[in-house]
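task queued by scheduler; priority normal; single chain, no ligands, no partner chains; default sampling; output format set to structure tokens
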Amino acid sequence: VQLQASGGGLVQAGGSLKLSCAASGPTFSDYAMGWFRQAPENEREFVATISRDGGSTYYTNSVKGRYTISRDNAKNMMYLHMNSLKPEDTALYYCAASRLALTTILRTYDYWGQGTQVTVSS
């Protein structure tokens, strides 16, 4: 599976962005998907994950109620809708695919996209 994240940009605090992750290959629905982020000088951290069929999701506490993860298996696409953005959300956002079901652990993800930069100004 090859993944390509897009949709990042510069936005003011309180604004919104929608990230997309395009997957190549016929087996997209075999993978749970996730979003991670990495701010400068910080470790990469879990943001959200979605099950293979899209029926289950899980978020890190800091984004609950503000972010929504979704997927469209027919289009091999995953999304992250981000609302009420804060300066501390500024990071490089990565999409990733895992053979496991709904995992938050970075090392359990098998494939990674290249990252898309999200910058939130105060």
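post-processing summary
- The CA atoms of residues 17 and 82 lie 5 Å apart.
- The mean pLDDT is 96.
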